[in-house]
């Protein structure tokens, strides 16, 4: 892996990426921001308690994200089968993207080392339609805080 981009913050230009969703569709940031604002939720694992809680909270507030014109994407290293099972079990109205080599997570400063293993660090990034980061936070922020960042 290359150097970690941990200097991203509000006002930075979001790093470009192309990832696949569980259905095999290519998702490109450049195309996404042409149509809507974007929230990327980098999370460590499918079917884990914290990740399930975080993504279900977004699902439960989905109407507010839709009304704000925001597309949401979960991002982690799991494969299509894992993402599909997770999304179907919890009825997520948003896609989960596959970052198998963690390269996109790394660009977004959403990785950490635990001993010798590199894992995803829970990170939420909000991106405006001009490609600028309007929200950047590690952990599990409140959905109201994420949504408020797009109103500023």
List the helices and strands and how they pair.
Layout: E1 18-21, E2 26-28, H1 29-35, E3 37-42, H2 49-60, H3 62-67, E4 70-76, H4 80-90, E5 96-98, H5 103-107, E6 111-114, E7 117-120, E8 123-127, E9 133-138, H6 143-149
Parallel strand pairs: 3-4, 4-5
Antiparallel strand pairs: 1-2, 1-5, 3-8, 6-7, 8-9
Mean pLDDT value: 93
Rough shape?
globular
Strand content: 25-35%
* CATH topology label: Glutaredoxin
Structure description:
The radius of gyration is 14 Å and the shape is globular. The strands form 2 sheets. A 7-stranded mixed beta sheet has the order 2-1-5-4-3-8-9. The protein has a two-stranded antiparallel ribbon with strand order 6-7. With 152 residues, the chain is an alpha+beta fold. It has 6 helices and 9 strands. β1 (18-21) and β2 (26-28) form a beta hairpin.
Task: Describe the structure in brief.
The chain has helices at 29-35, 49-60, 62-67, 80-90, 103-107, 143-149; strands at 18-21, 26-28, 37-42, 70-76, 96-98, 111-114, 117-120, 123-127, 133-138.
How would you describe this structure in keywords?
6 helices, two-stranded antiparallel ribbon, Glutaredoxin, disordered N terminus, 152 residues, alpha+beta
């Amino acid at each position: 892996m290359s150097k970690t981009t941990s200097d991203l913050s509000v006002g930075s230009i979001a790093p470009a990426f192309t990832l696949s969703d569980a259905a095999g569709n290519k998702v490109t940031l450049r195309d996404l921001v042409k149509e809507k604002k974007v929230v990327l939720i980098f999370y460590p694992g499918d079917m884990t308690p914290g990740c399930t809680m975080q993504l279900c909270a977004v699902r439960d507030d989905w109407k507010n994200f839709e009304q704000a014109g925001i597309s949401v994407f979960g991002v982690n290293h799991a494969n299509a089968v894992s993402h599909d099972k997770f999304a179907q079990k919890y009825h997520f109205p948003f896609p989960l993207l596959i970052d198998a080599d963690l390269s996109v997570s790394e660009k977004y400063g959403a990785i950490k080392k635990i001993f010798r293993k590199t894992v995803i660090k829970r990170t939420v990034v909000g991106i405006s339609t001009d490609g600028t980061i309007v929200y950047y936070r590690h952990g599990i922020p409140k959905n109201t805080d994420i949504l408020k960042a797009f109103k500023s």
